[in-house]
Amino acid sequence: MKKPHIPVRFVPIGATIFVFLLAYAIGIANFRNFGSLRVFLNLLHDNAYLGVAAIGAMVVILSGGIDLSVGSVIAFTGMLIAKMIDCGINACWAILLAIVIGSLFGMLQGVLISTFELPPFLVTLGGMFFARGCSYIVNEEAMGILNNPVFNFIENKLEIPIGSRGLTLEFIDILYLVLLIIAIVFTQRTHAGRCIYAVGENEQAATLMGIPVRRTKIMVYTIAGFCSAVAGIVFTIYLKSGNPLSCVGLEMDAIAATVIGGTLLTGGVGYMIGSFFGVLVLGLIQVLIMFQGNINSWWTRIIVGALVLVFIFMQNLITKISKKSRA
Question: For the chain, what is the largest distance between any 2 Cα atoms, rounded to a whole number of angstroms?
Fold first, then answer.
């Protein structure tokens, strides 16, 4: 009787889920009430903005590209919303305009990359500096958003009660989960999603197959810009303020969550649900260190860096095994 064969492409995401469950088990074994639903909901709530950003980052990486402008676009979005509200503009219009600008910014980067065949690393690096500079042009100092009726409505009314202990799934958590489900369906069940995988796996072969490579690249960077803007909105709702210094280096966290989630950095391999567990792993590491209390918070970066290296090594090994099996 043959043993069931597990495709190698499922190994990274399986490893991610194992790491998450292992870390969660360590927390439950060492800290009282760690396994409560409140801790998990707080974990989801505190990392919702990173989760939204990771969705955009993963779509780009699946296509074989990279986006370094994520953190700067989030900061710019927060500053733009805070400034417009301060000037008396309705928060709904401010949020809508921020989404449009973020999407157009991503689309512009996609046009530069696809039309002029410029390296995504350099284009988005320029975009990172540009968006960060625009944040300071909007306002050089942080701006709070206090007693805004739209934000108060979002915080107090748009929530789903869970259980009978006063626990709720808040708006930003719901928004992240909805976007995640949409992203899963989009990447796995649509023609555009299959085009993204094809371009990431082999761009030349995708061109020969008649896949619109240029249009696909513009699309993925537009999606990334949209997700960065939405992540900026989530971050602004979370902190009720805009700050031009916020989210410096967050693009690296989004890329790390994507890699830990099992997505191949060269593109073409990965599952959106993996980014969800990648984000939870990053958040869980921070929570474990916080619960411990006597460990320097910089250990978070050390552990994340080690995990990224382990998963990159695993990806490289899986790629070699796949090539041998095809030969």
Answer: 72
Q: Which residue, 257, 193, 318, 307, is CA-closest to 47?
A: 257
Tens digits of per-residue pLDDT, 200-243? 999 999 999 999 999 999 999 999 999 999 999 999 999 999 99
Instruction: State the Cα–Cα distance between residues 270 and 39, nearest whole angstrom.
Output: 28
3-class DSSP state of 143: strand
The two tokens of residue 183 are 């992203």
Tokens of 55: 């969705």
pTM score:
0.94
At residue 233, what is the residue type? I
Q: Is 32 helix (H, G, I), strand (E, B) or coil?
A: coil
Angle at 130 between CA 126 and CA 132, to 5 degrees: 120
How far is residue 249's CA from residue 296's CA, in Å, rounded to a whole number? 19
Cα 188 from chain centre: 18
Cβ–Cβ under 8 Å, residues 264 and 319: yes
Closest CA to 202 of 323, 121, 309, 69: 323
Q: Which amino acid is at 102?
A: G
Collapse the DSSP code of 210 into the 3-class scheme (helix H, G, I; strand E, B; otherwise coil) and give the result: coil
| Buried b or exposed e, range 23-50, using 16+ CB within 10 angstroms | bbeebeeeeeebeeeebbbebbbebbbb
CA distances from 33 to 24, 28, 30, 258 (A): 12, 7, 10, 29
Q: Distance (Å, rounded) from C-alpha 100 to C-alpha 124? A: 18
What is d(CA 241, CA 40) in angstroms, rounded to the nearest whole number?
A: 25
Q: Which two tokens stand for residue 297?
A: 């918070």
Please state, in angstroms and rounded to a whole number, the distance separating the CA atoms of residues 225 and 107: 7
Measured distance CA(21)–CA(243) in Å, rounded: 35
Contact 281, 12 (CB under 8 A): no
Q: What is the pLDDT of residues 39-83, one digit of tens each?
A: 899 999 999 999 999 999 999 999 999 999 999 999 999 999 999
